[in-house]
Amino acid sequence: MKKRSKRYKAIKERIERKTTYSPEEAINFIKSNPSARFDETIELSVHLGLDLKKIQQPIRGTVNLPHGSGKQIKVLVFAQGEHVERARNAGADYYGGNELIEKIKNGWLDFQAVVATPDMMRNIAALGKILGPRGLMPNPKTGTVTFEIEKIVEELKKGRIEFKMDRDGNIHLPIGKLSFSAEQLLDNFHAALRAIIAARPQGAKGVYLKSAHLSSTMGPSFPLSISKIVQEMKTSVS
Question: Closest by alpha carbon to 142, among 104, 120, 113?
Fold first, then answer.
C-alpha cells in the first residue's frame, strides 16, 4: 500500500465525501492547497462507460491545449532527403534516419514525441516494441505520420497532447501545471474534455463519460460533476 504524506492526508480530509465539484472549485482548491514543493502537474482522469468487449481498438486522440502543458517537449523526426532539413528548420530537436534508429535500439530515449514521414515507416517498424509501450510510435491516426512536418512539430511544441484509453476504460492526460492561472487550467480542461467527447466511437450506446476527476501530482483527486459540466459545455456552444 502506498504511503501518503501528512500533507496529502490533511488535504484529503478537507475533501467532502459523496460530493462532486465543478472544475473551477477543484482547480481553485488544488492551487490553494499544494501537495508538494515543486510545480506539480494537474491531471484530468476520465472513466468511459463503454462495453470494452465490443471495442476493437482503444479510444485515442489528440488535443491542442490552448495554454500548453507546461512541459518542455523534445521532438524527434524520422525523415530522409530534403525532409531532414525541413525538420531542422521546423524546430525539431532531433532529425534523421537510420542513425537515430540504431541509437534508439541501443537504449537512447531522450525525447517525448516522435514524428515520421510516411516513407520512413518501413524503416522504423523494428522500433515498435520499444516506442509502442511508451506511446511514442508514430501513428497516422494521431497525425504523427505525415509530410506536414512544420505543422506537427509546431503543434507538439505548443502543447499538443495524445491520449489513449487504458484496458480499464480510463483516460489520463495532463492539463497544465500548478503555476498556471486558474483561467488557463480551466481553458485547457475544457479543450481536453471536448477532445475526449469527440473521440467517442460511432454506435457507442449509454453514458459515455461515467466519471471524471482532477488531481495534482502528489495530491488527492477531486470528483467532478460531469453531467453538469457537459450540459454547460453544450449550452455555451449553442
Answer: 113
